[in-house]
TP53 regulated inhibitor of apoptosis 1
Amino acid sequence: MDPKCLLGKACIFLKREYDQCFNRWFAETFLKGERAADPCGQLFRRYQLCVQKAIKEKDIPIEGLEFMGPSKGKTENSS
């Protein structure tokens, strides 16, 4: 099944919007040595929420997948 179908058009649009923002910031700011904060964080959070909602609504199993984030690096026994 095409992953684009799983997430829906709303999430795909948000991903494109975030990717464009990040690529622009990366090329025009970060690579020039400016270490200003990433201005695309809000777009990323909207995209992330969209994906999480799609996963929940479509009952997509995510058990056993590793994610980057606050829990990264915790052992299985340290809940």
Remarks:
- The two ends are 34 Å apart (CA to CA).
- Residues 4 and 12 are 7 Å apart (CA to CA).
- The helical segments are 3-28, 41-57.
